[in-house]
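Structure first, sequence second, as always.
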C-alpha cells in the first residue's frame, strides 16, 4: 500500500500514485522493516529536482520495478527540504562510500535505519556507466540474505565514521588570518567568468561575501573586481531569468549560460543581498535590475496568500527541463514582430540553431549592458514576452513554507531595501515574518515546515538561527522591540537545546527529538549557510546592538568555539568567517534625539556588512556599561554615535559627517578573540 496520500509535502504527493508501497519517514516504517526482516530502501529528493523526476518516471511508476521493490524492501520516500536532518545523515554516508552525492539519493539501510550502501540516480536499464536499478535491487537483497557479514562490515564502518564529530584545531583567528584565507581563495577564482573555477558553477554566496568583506577592509581593488565580475557574469548569463527575474540553482557550464532550471528561495535570498551590495558599491543599473528582478519574481510567483514565501519552482514542465523558459527565433518573431525580434535576438542570443538543445536561453554574455534608451526599449520587449510566457504550462510550485529559507529571504529584503531605496520591501518582509512567528511557533520554539495548516515540529537549528537574524534585521530597520525579544527567545532555544558542548557547535536537531542513527552536527556551509555561521553572526549583531555584557560574552564564546573548526577548512566555513569579520571590525551606530528619521535612514543605507544600528526610543535607556551612555543622554538634537568596542565617537548630526565618522572608525578598529 502506498501511504503518501496523506502526506503534506508536494514532493511526496508527486509519488502518491506510484505502485511502490511507499512509507513516510518515521518509526512505523522501521518497525515494519524489523517485522519483515527486510532492508530499507530510502529515496530522498525534492520537488524541483529534475533527476528525481527522471527516476520516478523510469522506475517508480513502472509496475514491474515497483513489484521488485515491494517484494524485497520496505520503501521510504523523504523530502530533503522537509527533513534536512535525514538527508544530511544519509548523504554523509554516501560520501563515506566515495560517491560524489546528489539527488535523488538512493540508500539501503538495515531495519534499524543504519546505512550500508547506496548511490544517487539509478537508470532503469544499464546506461551512463551505471547498473540497472532492478539488478541493483536484486543484488542488495542477495547480499543481505547470503552474505550478512559484508553488510554488517559496511554498516559498522559507516556508522563509526558518521559518529565522529568535526574536530577543530584550536587557536584563534584575526584579520591577518582572514586575509591569508582570501589569498588562497583568489587562486580558485575564474578570472574570465567569475565564481569558482570549473563546471558546474554555483554562486556560493557566503564565499562571495567573504571575498567582498576582504575587499572592503583592505581596499584591494582586484578582490573587489573579482566579486563584481562574478555578479556581473551571473546577471548577464542564462542562470538569470531575464524576463521574469530571479536566478536558477546553478549553471552546468563554466560561463553561467545553461542553468539547471529550478529556482530556489534560498539562492535568491542570498543573491538579493549581494546584488544590493554590488549596486551600493557601483551604482550600476545591471545590479539594481538583478536585485529588483529577484523581488519581482518573489512577489509574482512565490508569495503565498498567508504572507510567507514558497520553497521552490520546478526545473521541468510538460516533462522537459527548462521548457517554460526557453525560446525559438520563431517565437520571438511571432510576439515582437520582425524588427524588434531581430534586435532582441541579437541582444539576448536568440538564434535559429539555439544555444540549448535546439532552443535559446536568453542571455547577454556577448552584448553586456546598453545605454539607458536601449535598455528601456528592451524592457518593453521583455514585458511582452513575459506576458506571452505566462500562458505556457507552468513548472510546479512547491508551496510549503520553510522557516529557515523564509528567514533568509526576510533578512535579505530588509538589508537590501535601504541600499536600493525600496522601503516597501520591509513591509513585504514583515508580512512573511509575521506568518512564521505566528503560525510556525509554539512556546517560543519554531517548527520547520508548514503546508495547509500542518506543521513539522520541532524545527532545526537553522530555522531558529535564520529567523533570529531576520528578527534583528527588522529590529534595526523598525526599532520595534518585539523583534529584539524574538531574537533573544530563539537565541536561548539554540543555546539550551541545540548547542553540543563537547563538539563546540550546534547540532541540526534539538536535544530529545526523534533519534537518527547519529545526531547530525554539520558546521560547513552548503547551498544554505550553516546554522553555526548564521547563529554566530546573529550573536555578534545582537551584541553590537545592545552592548549588553551578557550578549557580548555569548558572541565571543560562540566564535571562540567555532573558529577552531573553521581553521581546518576555511572556505567551507565562510559564514563563520564572515561573522568573525563583523565581530573584529564592525561598528555599532546609535541614533538618538528628536526628528531622527533622516539620520536614521542614512545609517541604514550604510552596507550592513560593516555596521549594526539601533535607534534609541524616548522611553528606552542604555545599559550602564554601554560606551555611549553619557553622550546619548545629552541634548535632544538628532545625533548618531559610532562605537567600536569600548570606544565611541563624538556625536555627528548630518549624513556626510556620519559616513566620514564610520569610515574613520572602521579603518582604525580591530580586535582579537581572546584565548
Amino acid at each position: 500500500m502506498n501511504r503518501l496520500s496523506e502526506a503534506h509535502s508536494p514532493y511526496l504527493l508527486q509519488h502518491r500514485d506510484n505502485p511502490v508501497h511507499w512509507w513516510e519517514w518515521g518509526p512505523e516504517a522501521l518497525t515494519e522493516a524489523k517485522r519483515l526482516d527486510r532492508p530499507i530502501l530510502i529515496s530522498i529528493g525534492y520537488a524541483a529536482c529534475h533527476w528525481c523526476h527522471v527516476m520516478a518516471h523510469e522506475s517508480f511508476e513502472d509496475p514491474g520495478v515497483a513489484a521488485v521493490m515491494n517484494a524485497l524492501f520496505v520503501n521510504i520516500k523523504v523530502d530533503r527540504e522537509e527533513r534536512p536532518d535525514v538527508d544530511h545523515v544519509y548523504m554523509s554516508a554516501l560520501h563515506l562510500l566515495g560517491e560524489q552525492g546528489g539527488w535523488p539519493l538512493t540508500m539501503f539501510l538495515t531495519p534499524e535505519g543504519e546505512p550500508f550502501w547506496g548511490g544517487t540516480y539509478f537508470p532503469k536499464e544499464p546506461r551512463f556507466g551505471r547498473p540497472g536499478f532492478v539488478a541493483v535491487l536484486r543484488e542488495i537483497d542477495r547480499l543481505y540474505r547470503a552474505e550478512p557479514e559484508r553488510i554488517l562490515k559496511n554498516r559498522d564502518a559507516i556508522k563509526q565514521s558518521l559518529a565522529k564529530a568535526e574536530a577543530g584545531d584550536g587557536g584563534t583567528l584575526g584579520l591577518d588570518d582572514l586575509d591569508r584565507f582570501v589569498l588562497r581563495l583568489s587562486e580558485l577564482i575564474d578570472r574570465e567568468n567569475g565564481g569558482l573555477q570549473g563546471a558546474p558553477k554555483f554562486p556560493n554566496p557566503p564565499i562571495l561575501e567573504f571575498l567582498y568583506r576582504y575587499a572592503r577592509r583592505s581596499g584591494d581593488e582586484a578582490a573587489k573586481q573579482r566579486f563584481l565580475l562574478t555578479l556581473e557574469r551571473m546577471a548577464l548569463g542564462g542562470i538569470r531569468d531575464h524576463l521574469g527575474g530571479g536566478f536558477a540553482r546553478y549553471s552546468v557550464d563554466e560561463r553561467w549560460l545553461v542553468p539547471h532550471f529550478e529556482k530556489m528561495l534560498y539562492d535568491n535570498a542570498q543573491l538579493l543581498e549581494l546584488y544590493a551590495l554590488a549596486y551600493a558599491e557601483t551604482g550600476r543599473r545591471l545590479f539594481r535590475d538583478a536585485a529588483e528582478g529577484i523581488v519581482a519574481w518573489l512577489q509574482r510567483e512565490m508569495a503565498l496568500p498567508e504572507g510567507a514565501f514558497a520553497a521552490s519552482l520546478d526545473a521541468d514542465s510538460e516533462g522537459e527541463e527548462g521548457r517554460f523558459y526557453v525560446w525559438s527565433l520563431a517565437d520571438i518573431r511571432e510576439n515582437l514582430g520582425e524588427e524588434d525580434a531581430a534586435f532582441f535576438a541579437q541582444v539576448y542570443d536568440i538564434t535559429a540553431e539555439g544555444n540549448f538543445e535546439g532552443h535559446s536561453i536568453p542571455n547577454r554574455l556577448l552584448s553586456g549592458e546598453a545605454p539607458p534608451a536601449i535598455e528601456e526599449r528592451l524592457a518593453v520587449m521583455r514585458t511582452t514576452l513575459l506576458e506571452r510566457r505566462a500562458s505556457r504550462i507552468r513548472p510546479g510550485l512547491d508551496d510549503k513554507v520553510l522557516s529557515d529559507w523564509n528567514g533568509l529571504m526576510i533578512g535579505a529584503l530588509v538589508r537590501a531595501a535601504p541600499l536600493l531605496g525600496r522601503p516597501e520591501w520591509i513591509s513585504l518582509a514583515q508580512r512573511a515574518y509575521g506568518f512564521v512567528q505566528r503560525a510556525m511557533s509554539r512556546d517560543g520554539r519554531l517548527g520547520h515546515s508548514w503546508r495547509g495548516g500542518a506543521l513539522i515540529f520541532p524545527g532545526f537549528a537553522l530555522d531558529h538561527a535564520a529567523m533570529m537574524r531576520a528578527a534583528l534585521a527588522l529590529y534595526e530597520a523598525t526599532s520595534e522591540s518585539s523583534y529584539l525579544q524574538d531574537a533573544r527567545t530563539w537565541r536561548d532555544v539554540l543555546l539550551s537545546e541545540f548547542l553540543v558542548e563537547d563538539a563546540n557547535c550546534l547540532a541540526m536537531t534539538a536535544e530529545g527529538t526523534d533519534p537518527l542513527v547519529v545526531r547530525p552536527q554539520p558546521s560547513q556551509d552548503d547551498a544554505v549557510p550553516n546554522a553555526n555561521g548564521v547563529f554566530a553572526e546573529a550573536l555578534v549583531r545582537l551584541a553590537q546592538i545592545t552592548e549588553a555584557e551578557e550578549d557580548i560574552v555569548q558572541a565571543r564564546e560562540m566564535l571562540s568555539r567555532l573558529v577552531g573548526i573553521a581553521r581546518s577548512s576555511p572556505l567551507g566555513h565562510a559564514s563563520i568567517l564572515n561573522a568573525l569579520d563583523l565581530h573584529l571590525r564592525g561598528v555599532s551606530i546609535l541614533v538618538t534625539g528628536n526628528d531622527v528619521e533622516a539620520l536614521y535612514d542614512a545609517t541604514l543605507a550604510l552596507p550592513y556588512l560593516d555596521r549594526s544600528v539601533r535607534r534609541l526610543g524616548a522611553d528606552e535607556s542604555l545599559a550602564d556599561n554601554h560606551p555611549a551612555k553619557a553622550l546619548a543622554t545629552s541634548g535632544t538634537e538628532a545625533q548618531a554615535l559610532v562605537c567600536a568596542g569600548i570606544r565611541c565617537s563624538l556625536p555627528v548630526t548630518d549624513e556626510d559627517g556620519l559616513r566620514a565618522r564610520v569610515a574613520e572608525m572602521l579603518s582604525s578598529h580591530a580586535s582579537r578573540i581572546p584565548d
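Margin note: The chain has four domains: 4-162, 175-316+398-584, 325-391, 586-668.
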